[in-house]
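Problem: given the chain below (276 residues), write out its structure.
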Amino acid sequence: MDRKTALALMTSHKILQIPIINLEGYVVGLHLWDDLGLASEHAHAMVIMAGGKGVRLRPFTENCPKPMLHVGGKPMLQHIIERAKTQGFKKFVISVNYLGQMIQDYFKDGSNYGVEITYIQEDQPLGTAGALSLIEHHVNSDFIVTNGDVLADIDYFDLIKFRKKHDASGAMAVRLFEWTNPYGVVRLEGMNITGFTEKPVVRSHINAGIYALSLAALAHISMHEYCDMPTLFERLREAGHRTVAYPLHEPWLDVGRPDDLKRANANFAEKPEYSN
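Solution.
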């Protein structure tokens, strides 16, 4: 259930909390009335990585940057900004490269959306963390980083609070991914068969492309050096800083391929959970 539906259900039934249940029937979270309303404004910034070429989404991205592809009638980037605004975010930094002028022409300084938007220009692709070397004068407290092609019903501010609570330099939103092997698996020791598992399910946690970072994390990124986010988290860990995983149970979609774009629009038409 998305947050908007949970809020409507609480209002109609005059209740203050709704448990979040996974497909196995286990409680994995809790919707709280106090957390679902409009948040107060705060000083934390959101950095949006919007410079990629979107090669896997061609031909849609031949003349359009990936974050500007429409879902539910407006760009994915607009969905991200509008959702974050409802959670108190007013300051946004967008990293642009490929067809970046289209993004700047559309959002300008953000005043039409009631926010402040500044831009950093990647002269060459710097990866999901490398562009952060350019934001020194744009942020003055810990901040959120999100990929510009990730649609998620996430409480970004809760991710910041989670990082602080666990005294970590970085928090990475992770999502449980399940894959069912379509075949029966034979367990072996050498040539000896030791057992069988029929169509086993493999569970793993995947990177959801959304992060909360402290200002201190920027010291581990070199100017104009390519660096992806897993590498930055490894550097933080090796330097003795704590990094933590933030479990994401809410609706989430990484729009990386044409089928994902089609699915995002279909999901939006059926249940516009990314609208505000």
